[in-house]
Amino acid sequence: MDACNLIRAPILHPAGPVALAERDLLFTAVFVMLVVVVPVFVMTFLFAWRYRASGGRGRYTPNWYYSGKVDAIIWLVPALIVVVLGYLLWTETHKLDPYRQLVSGTEPLEVEAIAQDWKWLFIYPELGVASVNELVFPSNRSLSLKITSDTVMNSFFIPALGGQIYAMAGMQTRLHLLADKPGCFRGRNMQYSGHGFPEQRFAVRALAKEEFDAWLSRARKSPEKLDMAAYRALAAPSVDHPVSYYSGVAPRLYDSIIEKYAGKHPE
Amino acid sequence: MDMRILGRLTAADALPFYSWVAVGGAVVTVLGLLTIVGAITFLRKWRYVWTEWMTSLDHKRIGIMYVMLALVMLVRGFVDAIMMRAQQAVALNSTGYLPPEHFDQIFSSHGTIMIFFMAMPFLTGLINIIVPQQIGARDVAFPFMNSVSLWLTAAGAGLVLISLVVGRFSTAGWTGYPPYSGAEYNPGVGVDYWIWAIQVSGIGTTLSGINFIVTILKRRAPGMKLMRMPLFCWTTLATSILMIFAFPALTVTTALLALDRIFDMHFFTNAGGGNLMNYINLFWIWGHPEVYILILPAFGIYSSVVSTFAAKRLFGYKSLVYATMAIALLSFTVWLHHFFTMGAGAGVNAFFGIATMVIAVPTGVKVFDWLMTLFRGRITFHPSMLWALGFIVTFVIGGMTGVLLALPPADYLMHNSTFLVAHFHNMLIPGALFGYLAGYMFWFPKAFGFTLDERWGKGAFWCWIIGFYLAFMPLYVLGFMGMARRMERYEISAWQPFLLIAALGAVVILAGITCLVIQLVVSIRKRNEKRDLTGDPWDGRTLEWLTSSPPAPYNFAVLPQVRDIDALHDMKRHGSVYVRPKQYEDILLPINTGAGVLIGGLAFVFGFSAVWHIWWVAAAALLAILATAAARSFRDKTEFCLTGSKVQEIENRHFRDLAREGVL
Amino acid sequence: MSPVGDDTALLPHDEAYDERAFGFWLYLMSDAIIFALLFATYQIMAGDIAGGPQGSDLFSLPHTFGETLLLLTSSLTFGLASLALDAGNRRRVLAWLGVTFVLGLGFLAMEIHEFHGMITRGAGPDRSGFLSAFFTLVSTHGLHVSAGLVFILVMTVQVVVKGLSRPVSSRLERLGLFWHFLDIVWIGIFSVVYLPGILR
Fold it and tell me: Which numeric CATH code is attached to A109-260?
């Protein structure tokens, strides 16, 4: 995580289309709401000044307490804003559904993420490697994440690339992300999960094609294999686990972590 | 199950030697208790405290005790807050000054205390003191139950306080999400303290809700139609309805978590077919209405304050009533927005997002109605009015960030970050707490017979509002910088400047709290110059200002005849205020009883032994509560008669004061 | 301002009884929410058997039918007690309260028997999410019935000691509300828990 230039305010300076669209929605909503917020500010200060008992210039009409017109405006303006924002909300929520596949030239890269106490394990099923506390993928190729937890509820978040989603044991959530350019970002668990929580972060590297291949061959050279025994050792609670790689992964490892907790009867 | 005589209570587990800060807290807590007990003993006031206060069924005294509890817990909750701010200000690449796990207890107890044991008793206390008077009633419908509610709340607060001395508090946050809060990941007593504290006080709250609904619907003075009630009564009605419908959800949620923890059940565990999502849903089915339980009474207070100090009738009374009820109703339809990131479908998220934004409409209406009340008014800047104005401006910012969080895609970015923390403090400090403080300064003379010092009150306001902006605006920024909430330490140096500003804000708020304390001391010292002899220090508009300050136990010797909104203002205009009857009638009043204190005390014993698995004591306490209730039910004659001549005596005094002040 | 001693204590004004009835209704609504959420939880968790037994392995229709019969009849006998109360017939009130108590006790005994059987077969509340939800929902109702039985005992004593005075009869009316409420909840349990469990 050390070598890369970190973005100071990743949410304001997104590095991918998902985070960008989410941020833009945020900005648009703020502007629309200023229609109400600014008048409230102005009116509060203006009225407090004009109608102050100690020498305010305003008229005093103690018996004026209703006007149909004003009442209508008071109801209609906020209602209109909500209609506008509601429309925006409906379309954007569907467009930015984290379960939705992103459209990009190539097939998405599949990664399975497992939250553990207090680290993240990433399995690359197509590539047969796994990494701890480092998520690496090619830039400009969309990333398709399957997420679960082998401990308490976590929340998977890479602020520069897009919004978060919970990681829950026995269940799977999905997230689709894309990095426009090569870059180095930060990801972390956002849901408090115990005493190693502050260090439960991971490096996110979007690499150009050649660099990604280089990274892959490095990972493949790792002497460690992620079989069940190695998995159990890894899953034991640890704080600030160093970045490490596995050159092989037991088949269906990710599925077996989910099934371990599944309480449903087969229907 | 644990069958040892003292359950799992052992000296090694119980005492807070894991942290010198915790030892300090424990010592302060114990010393505080000893000081109070010592002072009462030294002054030989036990009989007075017991007969006039603890056993009192007078709604005003019960209300005052609620508010006292709230103020004590405000200080305790604030100590937690400033400790967190201090920790985060220094914990860059270091563990800070708090030992691990202690920080986590503090953020859990801060939230729990501020919501359940500061805000809830504060609003319940103000409602208790004022609402019966505003509707022209002599008491609440169920005075004994009122006392039970108070002592159950106090018992819950006691459990949180004692967790600092004996054992530890929860580290699972005020929301107690499983499976982290389950026995597998949290086997200690912390979560149990949290569960039983809110379980015990939650029952008290449900009872309060029932009490206020019946009082408002059945005890109004002649002519006080619903649509003539002061807005505070309306918001109390809405809050009470929310209390009886929402609190059962909290009772169920925490009870199921307790069953998981005690009997190894599988409601929310990872394995065994548990379903943590059910907890989160149930919790917020209570939790979202709870936000409005806290805020609506404050809206009512603002309405009273704005109208009184603008010397004008509330603009759009009906709109305000409809908006209040709309908010209450809608509050049950939005709980899912607390977890948009759980992976529900886009349609579900969008539905709940829009429902959430719809609430912004009646809320916006209220803000504009208050503004239109100021319009062409004659505004006096009493401290209560300052709280109200500060609220309006600050609250819209919180409303705006709230709408942002209601947009699911934006929420994906801001959820669980300090942005969220800033948002809900932005709603609850100006929205609720400023309102309670406005009410405290507004109605203090009604409760005690003298006014509070205005200069220190204004000082408190300015410190609080400046401190608020300093403490929470940086947290909004940190949210954009990706900082998660509840971080004990961090490694990003860019965050630290903002956290330092936030810590400075906490210090300024500390100055605000100091002002509140000084204000109280100064006012008590100068109480003779500050006497409110008329019972109506602010040219009030509603019926609570018709009674003397403090009111006679029966509030109104003659039930007032109401003909309009702002009943007292209307009477003043028609010159029908302060009219004396030829003869005063006898008045029935409830006889004091210690049964409420006993039930509260037993509930505390029950909670404490349930926490430590001392089951035989827990069972005995439960049986004793049942026996107390059964014994109480044998008492048919619960009232005593204050004869007309006694009433006349009391009223004579009041009218002598009125005459001396030249009101008559 | 208060104690005067018992000799000067008075009954509350008449409207107080109305207020108590209304307050009790509100309490029942609040309690109904508790049950509604437990029902919802049960519905959500009915499939979470975690490899353990499911409803059809555990529930017995005749047994449940017996429980239902006892509880419904007890509601009827409480109704008869209420009629006797209206008629001012103290002995009959006591008699019907007694019958109601016995029926309620029988219901409770059957429920405990069922629970005991399930637990000894390894199908206790800690076996699976489904069983946690089942035991919690049904025993919450059972605890309410137990509270109702205590309430009946207390009221029996009051009728004996105080007669059918205004305060006593108003308490009996609220007890009636409570008892019938438990009946309705049981019908819910029967149709949501047992019937689908057996028919599945």
Answer: 2.60.40.420
